[in-house]
Structure formats: structure tokens, C-alpha cells
Design goal:
Layout: H1 3-35, H2 38-74, H3 81-117, H4 123-152
Length: 159
């Protein structure tokens, strides 16, 4: 298999992991939170933290590397409009993902504490959950935009 094909495959798999893990994490956290069961939420949030570390963080590192190597292999300029916009959207996604990682850790810890104390979830849990939930929308739309740009490769000048 030619190097270009391997790079393209790795890049597409990385993109799928980012979108799929993000969607899966969001789904399971939303469903767990709906129960208001601190023990269940603590378990799911713990699993979410592991998934984000193993899958999302790995893909976050691999994506720019495979993207750069693929662009070099194909001789695409990183200043092409669709590539530049993809990179901007990637940074936007990261700006929403980084606080989400911290929030997920905090949500997990708050649910664990409530479980250990036999107490309900504290108001801080709901406040942080609302921020976590809100951060998901711009990140999801940015990733969706990146997928569209990668598939369509519209020709335009960004700068």
C-alpha cells in the first residue's frame, strides 16, 4: 500500500475516532446524568475520562501529524483555504475540548463524593454539567465542518 494511502487511512480513522468517541461520550454522560443516580454517574464519568484519555487524546495528537504528512505527500499547501479553515476549526474544537476534560474529571469526582457520603449531587455538579453540555455543540459543529471540508475540499482563499 502506498504511503499516501496509509496516511489517508490513518487520518480518516483518527477523524472517525474523534467524532465517534465525542458522540459516544456525550450520549453516555447525558443518559447517566438523567438518572440523577450519583453512583451510576460516577461510574460512567470514570469510563468517559478513560475513553477521552485513551481514544480522544491519542487521536488529537495523531490528526495533525497525519494531516501534515498527507498534505506533504500530496503536495497540498497548508495555506489552501479548506486546509487553513480545517486547522482553525481544529483549534476551536480543542478550545472547547480542553475545559470539557477538566469538567469531566470534576463531574466524576463530585459524583464519587456524593456516592461516598450518601448525598445527592451538589449544585456545582449541575452548574458544571451545563457548561460541559454547552461546550459540546460548538465542538461537534466544528468537527462536522472539518469532515465536510476534508470530503469536499472547496476551493477558496481564506486570507
Amino acid at each position: 500500500m502506498p504511503l499516501e494511502d496509509l496516511l489517508r487511512l490513518a487520518h480518516v480513522i483518527g477523524a472517525a475516532v474523534l467524532l465517534g468517541t465525542g458522540a459516544g461520550i456525550a450520549f453516555f454522560m447525558v443518559m447517566a446524568r438523567r438518572t440523577r443516580d450519583a453512583r451510576l454517574i460516577a461510574h460512567v464519568a470514570g469510563t468517559v475520562v478513560i475513553a477521552d484519555t485513551v481514544f480522544t487524546a491519542t487521536a488529537v495528537v495523531i490528526q495533525p501529524i497525519t494531516g501534515y504528512l498527507l498534505a506533504q505527500s500530496i503536495r497540498w499547501s497548508l495555506t489552501e483555504g479548506w486546509i487553513t479553515l480545517s486547522l482553525i476549526l481544529y483549534v476551536v474544537t480543542g478550545l472547547f475540548w480542553l475545559p470539557v476534560v477538566w469538567i469531566q474529571l470534576r463531574l466524576r469526582d463530585l459524583a464519587r463524593l456524593a456516592t461516598a457520603n450518601g448525598a445527592p449531587l451538589p449544585p456545582e455538579f449541575d452548574r458544571l454539567y451545563a457548561i460541559w453540555f454547552a461546550c459540546g455543540f460548538p465542538a461537534f459543529f466544528a468537527v462536522t465542518g472539518i469532515f465536510w471540508l476534508m470530503l469536499v475540499k472547496p476551493q477558496f482563499a481564506l486570507f
